[in-house]
Amino acid sequence: MPADPLFRTDAYLKSCTATVTQAEPGGIRLDRTIFYPTGGGQPGDTGIMRWQGNEARIADTRKYRTEGEPEDILHILAEGSPIPEPGTEVETTLDWARRYAHMRMHSCMHLLSALLRDAAVTGGQVGAEKSRLDFDMPSGQVDKDALTAELNRLIAEDHMLAQRWITDEELEAQPELVRTMSVKPPMGHGRVRLIAIGDNIDLQPCGGTHIARTGEIGAVEVAKIENKGKQNRRVTVVFRAPAA
User: Fold this and answer.
1) Burial, 192: exposed, middle or buried (Cβ in 10 Å; 0-12, 13-18, 19+)?
2) What is d(CA 128, CA 203) in angstroms, rounded to the nearest whole number?
3) 61, 73 in Cβ contact below 8 A?
4) Residue 112 shares a structural domain with residue 173
5) Which of 28, 103, 189, 207 has its CA 20 to 30 A from that of 221?
6) How many angstroms separate the CA atoms of 228 and 234, rounded?
7) Which tops the pLDDT comparison, 191 or 33?
């Protein structure tokens, strides 16, 4: 059985106990996990795994699939780490500051796509310090200062984020919900998670981790808007440094 993705129902869990289901030099599989695997532009989580006096660093987390089996999550240990035996109970702890920054930035990217909803998203990357989205934007006209002001307005209004679930068939019948041309929504499990911001600010499928309210994002700034092609515009957002 694949790991129970605890991060999907509670992104604020910082540690948990789990049982090793498979262990090999390439990575560790668990019966449940709080570690998000790389996907949808969000990096995989890092942290620590402890058991029976041993400790190993989780250097990355990735999706794992073998033919004929459902997708699972693989915890990649740092080179030279001890490896727990299958059946071992372990305690896993996130690098929380890094994960929380990803949560804040990922939610901010949803706000950014909502503000530029007439432009399809062609790519993106979430980071702990800066993030970016690429847009198919024929007009090419985006004002950096105005976009910064609108982002910070939505953040300061402290809108709630909530998740909803719809079936794969319901999503296929509502293609307008999918705004990313480069990232396929997490389908194939019978249902798809939607992330809703506020009453009517944003609604789109997403398998990533998010904060509970937009106010947690903190002040941000559109650092630059780059021309990456005839119609492609790359918008990079950073956390605004606090005043000295």
Assistant:
1) buried
2) 23
3) yes
4) yes
5) 207
6) 7
7) 33
Residue 116 lies in a domain: yes
Boundary of a domain, candidates 94, 126, 145: 94
User: Same structural domain for residues 9 and 62?
Assistant: yes
DSSP β-bridge partners for residue 70: none
For 69, the domain range is 4-94
Give the chain's domain count. Answer: 2
Q: How many CA atoms lie within 13 A of 76 on its CB side?
A: 13
Q: Compute how many other C-beta atoms are within 10 angstroms of the C-beta atom of residue 32.
A: 18
How many whole angstroms separate alpha carbon 132 and alpha carbon 113?
10
Q: Tokens standing for 211?
A: 């904060």
Mean pLDDT (the chain, rounded): 90
Question: With bands split at pLDDT 50, 70 and 90, how would you rate the model's confidence at 244?
Answer: very low
Lowest model confidence (mean pLDDT) among 59-63, 129-133, 185-189, 190-194: 185-189
Q: Are residues 111 and 208 in the same domain?
A: yes
CATH code for the domain in which residue 149 is found: 3.30.980.10
Longest CA pairwise span in the chain (Å): 60
Give 17-67 pLDDT, tens digit per residue: 999 999 988 899 999 999 999 998 999 999 999 999 999 999 999 998 887
Q: Please give the model's pTM, rounded to 2 decimal places.
A: 0.91
- At which of 94, 111, 132 does a domain end? 94
CB-count burial class (<10 Å; 0-12, 13-18, 19+) for 2: middle
- The enclosing domain of 86 has a CATH number of 2.40.30.130
